[in-house]
Amino acid sequence: MNRFLRKLPLLAALLAIGAAFVWLDSDKDFKREVFPARSLHNIAPKGASLAFRYLKESRGSKAPAVSELHRMIDYAEIEPNAVVFRIGPEKKPGEHESPDPNKTGLKTPPPVKPVVTGGPLLTDGELNWVKGGGRLVLALDKNYGPIEVVNQTKGDDFKKTFDFWPGVNRFHPRPARTLNFKGASLDKAKSIAVLDDAHTLFALNGEIFAARILLEGGTGDVIVLASPEIFTNSHVGLEDNLKLLGQLAPSTRPVYFDEFVHGLHTSPGMIEMLVRWGMGMALLVMLAGGMVLFWRARASIGPPEDDHKETRTEAIDFVNSLAPLYNRVLEPHQAIALHYKNFIHTVTAQSGLRGADLRARIFALLGTSDEAGLTGRRALTPSEFFSLLKTLNEAYGRLERAHRR
Q1: What residues does 84 pair with on adjacent strands?
Q2: What global pTM score does this model have?
Q3: What is the pLDDT of residue 361?
């Protein structure tokens, strides 16, 4: 028991830490602050959690899955006909160096072309994947490689210029932006501008707001929109935004939300959230402290303590201390009365008798009819006290032997 009590502070500390983790995992304000805007894990107005949840819940159980993408398309094993949403990308995959093939598990990964202003829009891996039937949705609020995003002072003149999405007629372009494809190309070997390969789907103030790029010799496409807000929690339910989401990602195609461009290389767990919240050093200190405590508990200092515990009963010591107490506070007739009352309760519990039958049973066990002496209604001489005490003890013995039979 003493050993358990010594561990109570450590147990309380562990429970407090676990409660803090559970609180952080369920706290909505924490999730609003820790995840980037336009991430599907962000539940704030600028997050994309509702768009992800809508697609995930609105598709049938047999439809392809809606998942997260934590790697570059060049090295991710995604389906040829999948749809990848890249909403308000903070990073451009082509800006990073090609990872080590041994670490990615690919024997000959395609080289990654850098994304620079006026350079290629897609890396080699993205280009091959789109040509094979994939769809890349780029919802941009700032320049993306060769594509320039232009802020507009007003957004009233909004027109549908190409009937590609039935039922989708108007978005909510606030803030108003347009796209400029001038001088941009799909790859370095191609001199034709992206604008020549694009179909303008919607126009704002006479400029491109949404466009679809078809690749020569391919079956996929790239959809570019000048508004990531269309898919954010604050706007996804406005006007035809949900219809657009369904048209871009039909239930027959797998869907991925690109979290790699938001800096998430794995699905975020509690450890990553704590690190993002600035508690990485605290976790390191806790880990080091736990290792020290474990080592201290395993390493003995000095001779071992004697774990011997007293196992004999304490009944004798209890009686020896209780008897003088009763002797001081009770008169002889009062002590006999208490002993007799306890005897009556014992007989009642074991026999189940009541009334006259109980009374007859008691006096049969006692072998005496001195009820006045047993109930304490008269004073007792020392000899009478010891005689009645002997009578009661012998009656207990007879009751015990009868019960055993």
Answers
A1: 136, 256
A2: 0.56
A3: 87
